[in-house]
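Translate sequence into structure tokens.
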Amino acid sequence: MSSGEAEMEMSIRTDRMELFKGADSFSNQPHNHRHFYQFTVPVQGICHFTMDNRPFRLHEGDGLVQHPGAEHYLHLDDASSVIIIKFRQDALQLDNGPNTRPEFAERQWMNPLDLSRRFQHWTTELMFTEEKEPLAAQETEIQVLHYLKEALYGSSMFDGKLENRGNHFVRDVHLDRVLEYMHECYSSAVSIEELSAIAGQSRYHFMRMFHAYTGVTPYQYLLRLRIEDARIQLRNSSASIAEISCSLGFSSASQFHRIFLKVVGLTPGEFRRSGR
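Result follows.
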């Protein structure tokens, strides 16, 4: 994407999507994305958008979907900004089979303040995710895809809803296998692909069902296991905090310190000295 001196832009990519924000007279050249959908939403000011030779004047919250292969380009007025989410055409297939391709309504509307807040949260999570923690980045990616699934309309593939089980707890042998695996391997790097494969579910369906089953995300569950082990080691061993951090798969002692403090309310050193 092209930019001039007065233009500002930021971009974060994952395996299946890209989060982009352009501002202050940002513009780009005609292009298309062969395997990606693009969702374009001005969150401030005016975005002049051209898609397949058709001009659009988009105001705040006026979303526009570009299907794979659609040629498009844009330029912003002064003091304007736009959020763009690109996602692979197979990213929202979910449980509908490998040949299912959604056809979204071209025009969408989003609350620009809500989208801006979510965008800031997503990008912050991705920027500060440790490289050795793929599960955390994948969970953020799935948060974005879940938002798109709920927010975009025009595709019948998203008409179904998660079955309401009321207050009845149903034992799931597939998720039990996932939990057993996590209890055995929590000190190693774990990915959504591994866990969803054990459950025999798509990534998206697995994330929904795991949260419904445990009340937390897979990454939060993994951290709980690590922190519980850390508490035992801090109480019962003479290993240094750095050694404990390394043995439990944390990417650094500082990450261990930060997460332990958040979960327990004490630093690892304070916890050890307290004799709890």
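Note: The longest helix spans residues 218-236.
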